């Protein structure tokens, strides 16, 4: 292909083109697992220490995690969605989240190049936003999260992962690498954007390396596997000086 598939402008193109069909495709092609995993990602996040908490949904896309977040923490103050693809956000606000608009802010930016203020977040959440980054970008993301969280701030992230060691892994990989691209070619008139999402997912591995990077920045991190490792996540908090 010749392009760097981890170049933010390449990633933006993939998601701008996918935005119209992303919600349906992701729900159907994961057999509903993505919804369950978003809910589990929210459940894994320690409770913010203050009421009216404000924080970031990084790589927010269509805002699929917001209903889960607002259901668990109904006193949440505001969610600032950060995404490089305005197509994903526009679509989401029109179709799904108009009634939540007063609690949602949006920043269209490359997260890794963003200048989000230090110690500005009570929480950081991210669902399925890790796979389009390579290792060097994961390290920058970990540094960003450590910087923007307030002392005592909490975080949780989840990503579809390679279930190494699971006896049904070959079937799972067949689904990602062969079945999904085929469905896309047939039903979406030859497009290959969702196939790219499959490529990112199989390249990703697990969130274990991201856990290590977050720990290197002094965060307390718990690593979790979901459904035989088909998704993995990290959750935890930034300590406060008085915690020692
Ligand atoms: C697979 S979607 C996940 C969307 C949503 N969080 C969910 O749960 O479905 C990944 C999102 O990450 C965004 N993204 C990828 N690279 C980014 C970057 N460098 N900065 C900001 N957003 C990025 C894409 O535009 C896309 O909306």
Question: How would you describe this structure to a colleague?
Answer:
- The chain has helices spanning 8-18, 22-29, 33-44, 66-72, 86-95, 135-148, 169-187, 193-204, 208-216; strands spanning 54-58, 78-83, 104-108, 121-127, 149-160, 220-226, 231-237.
- It starts with 7 loop residues before the first helix and ends in a 7-residue tail after the last strand.
- The protein is built from 9 helices and 7 strands.
- The chain is α/β, with parallel strands linked by helices.
- The protein is 42% helix and 20% strand.
- Residues 8, 11, 15, 26, 38, 59-62, 64-65, 82-85, 88, 110-112, 127-129, 132 line the site of S-adenosylmethionine.
Question: How do the strands and helices of this protein lay out in sequence?
Answer:
Elements: H1 8-18, H2 22-29, H3 33-44, E1 54-58, H4 66-72, E2 78-83, H5 86-95, E3 104-108, E4 121-127, H6 135-148, E5 149-160, H7 169-187, H8 193-204, H9 208-216, E6 220-226, E7 231-237
Parallel strand pairs: 1-2, 1-4, 2-3, 4-5
Antiparallel strand pairs: 5-7, 6-7
Residues 8, 11, 15, 26, 38, 59-62, 64-65, 82-85, 88, 110-112, 127-129, 132 line the site of S-adenosylmethionine.
């Amino acid at each position: 292909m010749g392009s760097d598939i981890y170049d933010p402008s390449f990633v933006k193109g993939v998601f701008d083109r996918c935005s119209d069909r992303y919600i349906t495709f992701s729900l159907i092609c994961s057999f509903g697992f993505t919804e369950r995993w978003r809910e589990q990602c929210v459940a894994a996040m320690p409770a913010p220490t203050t009421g009216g908490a404000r924080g970031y949904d990084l790589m927010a896309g269509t805002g699929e995690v917001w209903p889960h977040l607002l259901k668990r923490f109904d006193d949440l103050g505001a969610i600032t969605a950060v995404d490089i693809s305005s197509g994903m956000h526009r679509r989401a606000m029109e179709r799904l989240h108009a009634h939540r608009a007063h609690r949602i802010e949006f920043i269209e930016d490359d997260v890794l190049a963003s200048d989000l203020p230090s110690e500005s977040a009570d929480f950081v959440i991210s669902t399925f936003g890790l796979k389009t980054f390579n290792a060097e970008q994961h390290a920058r993301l970990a540094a960003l999260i450590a910087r923007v969280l307030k002392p005592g701030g909490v975080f949780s992230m989840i990503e579809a992962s390679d279930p190494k060691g699971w006896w049904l892994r070959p079937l799972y990989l067949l689904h990602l690498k062969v079945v999904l691209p085929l469905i896309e070619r047939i039903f979406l008139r030859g497009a290959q954007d969702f196939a790219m999402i499959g490529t990112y997912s199989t390249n990703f591995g697990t969130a274990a390396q991201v856990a290590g990077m977050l720990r290197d920045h002094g965060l307390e991190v718990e690593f979790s596997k979901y459904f035989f490792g088909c998704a993995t996540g990290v959750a935890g908090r930034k300590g406060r000086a008085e915690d020692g």
